[in-house]
Amino acid sequence: MLNVILDGFPDEYEGYLIRTDFRVGIQISEALSDVNLADPEKMLTALRLLYGNGIPADTKVAESGLCWFMRCGKPSEEHIPDSKPPTFDFEQDNRLLYSAFRARFGIDLTRERLHWFAFLAMLDDLGGCSLSDIIGIRGTDLSKLSDDQRKNYAELQSKYRIKPQMSDGDLAKIAEFESQLEG
Fold this sequence. Notes:
By secondary structure, the protein is mainly α. It contains nine helices and two strands, in the order αββαααααααα. β1 and β2 form a beta hairpin. The radius of gyration is 19 Å and the shape is globular. It starts with a helix and ends with a helix.
């Protein structure tokens, strides 16, 4: 297992250079969840982001490196699909994320260069800020609350829910419907 204190942050995977800036990690995460891309396009986009023009010819190595990078060098484990709704979204929560890093660490994410692994370690350590409060609200299991708490948290979850991404086709249909309403 990787010990970043002793080994430092890696800049390659099995001899292949990787792009390690946290913005690349965010872009990969966004690409992999993009509803406008088919699965093969998601993977190819993510691999191009990570490896640049030097994507390994061995697909298994390339994809293994992508998974390794996104998990911060942690060994691969059997992935069990999570049925819980997400509690964080880079796109929707970007301002809260910026503010939290600025307040907690004094880091301006628009100017700073951070390795993806360092960024996620800091993200895991955020606490006592609006972002961590909202993530806590989103992740609260309502079935474990009293009736009064359940009603309150249900309202808060509705207010702070992660809005589903819409495909370009869905957005076009909405725009067409709105124009028909106006006309």
